[in-house]
Structures are given as C-alpha cells and as structure tokens.
Records
---
Amino acid sequence: MIFDPGEREDYGVSLGFDFGRQAPFGGSLEFSQRERNFRDTNDPGLFDTSEYEIAGRLNFQITPRFTASLIGSRDVYDADDSVSTYEVTTAYGVGGSLIVNRTLEVNGEILQDNIDTERTTGDTETDGIGVILGSRQELQNGGFSLDFSSRERFTGRRSELSFSRDMATPTGSFSYGIGITQSENTDLAPLFNLTYVQDRTDGALSIDLQQGVRVDDEDRD
C-alpha cells in the first residue's frame, strides 16, 4: 500500500454488440478502454497506465444441441513506469457448447495464449495452450456450476477449479462458490465468493464477498 499526496484519475469506456442470439449464426464483439493518471505524486510506484481490450466470438449452431465457436481477443497495456512496460496479450481458438438434456449443459474452449512484453530492461515472450471447461446443472431452485481453467499468464501458467451454487430466496437470491487455484510461482490457494440480494420496495440490498487472484502493475500475483 502506498501513501502519497496528489490525485489519481480513473476513467474508462466499454461497448458491446451482439447479433443472431437465437439464429443458427451469431456472435458478439466487445471493446473496453481504461486510463489511470496521477498528478502531483512523488512515489515511483504511482505511474500512469493505459489499457484497451477487444474481444470477438462467432457462434455456429451445428445441431439444435451443439454450437461451435471461433474466439479471439487482444489486450494492449501501456505503462509509464520506470521500465516503460508495453505488453500485448492475444488469444484465439475454438469452443463448443453442448446441451446434454433439459437441465445439463457443458462447454469447453481451447485457446492459444501469447504474451509479448517490451521493457527497457529487455523483452520477453510467453505462449502456451489454454483450456477452459465448464458445466451447468439446472435444479428446481437455481442450479450449480463446475468450472476448470488453465491459462498462460505473464507470471506463468495459472490453473483454477471452482464450484458455484445459486438459488432464489423468498425475498431475493443467494449464491456462493468455492475453489482452488495455483500457478507456477505460487502455492495452492483457496477461492471463494458469497453474494446475497434482498429485494425491497424501493430497490435492493446486496452483499458481495469474494477472494480471487489478480496480477498487479508490477507483474506480481
């Protein structure tokens, strides 16, 4: 944690477009832009950053129960830090979703992850195959999901396994999830999330707690 006088300004924009949701052919396109600027600060750990991401997906309904997808994304991160970090992350691959029966659906994706990082101290390149698997079982009250992912990141390959359950309550909804995660540079760690929503006549009251993993501006898990 850094304490320093000055100001920080954050702003961003995101756009999304979907087409053919109920058609044999459809897809989506998403774009986001985020900026963070500091003024009148002294700590070198506080530096300006800029990031944009574009992601697209094309869906092809092969049969009434099976849909295949083409997937692609590109993320560009530019930081005005001491080593002038410029990082480009791309991913592309294929996916599929299968409706097993009226209550069970399974899906999967196979991706090629590429991470190119340029710094004044030297350039690095990381690449590998990413795998995402998931399933959703509908119940009389809500449902549960089981998900697994293994993706290449700048800090090494990270794998996660999680279980989640959601249900309706007489006054709103309740959901929770538990899981585990591990990377090449970190030990096995727990994941959890808990969300409660209570509907009110003038709106809603919500409580959300979660523990996850992120990579900070200095490329640390």
Note: The two ends are 15 Å apart (CA to CA).
---
Amino acid sequence: MIDYKRLEYLNRKVKNETASSSEKDEYMLLLYQNKSITKSQYDKYLSDKSSDNVLGAAITIGGILLLGYIIDKLANKSN
C-alpha cells in the first residue's frame, strides 16, 4: 500500500523544484512500485534524471493519485 503522506510530501517538493536527487529518486520509485508509472517511464527517468518531461508527467500522476485518495477519504467519511 502506498504511503500517501510521503507521496504528498515528495510530490510537493518535486513540483516546487526543492526536492533533492534522492527525494526525486524515491518519488519515482514510489510511483513505479505502485504501478502508477510503467517500467519504461521509470527506466527513462533513471537514464536521464534531468528530463523535465518524465518528472512533469510524474507530478501529474502523483497529483491524480492524491486527489483519488482525498475523494475516497471524503466518500468514506460521509458514510
């Protein structure tokens, strides 16, 4: 199961361009292990860590995961 608090923290740092290299690596690994990005996307990140395209897509994907988590929490709270 994904650690949504950690995902939120890392997503915010990557998005604000304040994440260290190891935090970016952790963020991408978290998304890959959750099957939110493909192996080829993860491999592309590993081969070119300076690629803004891959990180940009990852920020969007992470944001969607977080939004889904929040919606699920709100839906379950109202039941």
Note: The chain has a mean pLDDT of 92.
